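Ticket #4471: structure export looks truncated?
Reporter: QA, pipeline team
Priority: medium

Steps to reproduce: submit the single chain below to the structure queue and open the exported record.
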Amino acid sequence: CAPPRAHRSYSRDMDTTQLLARVPLFHELEQADLERLASVTRSESYAAEAEIVRIGDAGHSLYVVLRGSVVVVYPGRSADVELARLTEGEFFGEMAILNSKPRSATVRALDAVTVLVLEKDDFTRIVLESPQLALKVMEALSVRIRNTPEQLSGLFERALRDQLTGPLHPGTFH
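Actual output as written to the record:
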């Protein structure tokens, strides 16, 4: 069971439209589309080490980090494999607003974190009203997908190095 959320509320103390415009996924959108998206978002806060999403769970939201930082991990046999660390303005869960597949990784708060949440149903409704928005979001996602092989290569190299040096690590001997 995931740790409880610190609180859940819509944050009106920031200009959500301007925040969304700075997110790579949305920065090419027209002001009207940004305003539509902003109108259906909410903010959520999490304590340090809280799971925001868990691998295998149903995905239905995209998250934008407003404050703090998170770590994206894939559970390994002996330890979690860190896929990424994300800070303010970065996003995760983007595949959840495009398909109905389960979450492909776990995301945990590294410190106190506030995220902006966009639900799939709201995103779908807005895309149907503005097909141009869908094209611009697909362009941004294609850049992220294009970078995936480089990320996987780095993970493979790190895993191989850890496998080779793991037995020599001082913590191995009790």
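Status: closed, not a bug. The export was complete when the record was re-opened. Leaving a note from the reviewer for reference: The chain has five helices and nine strands.
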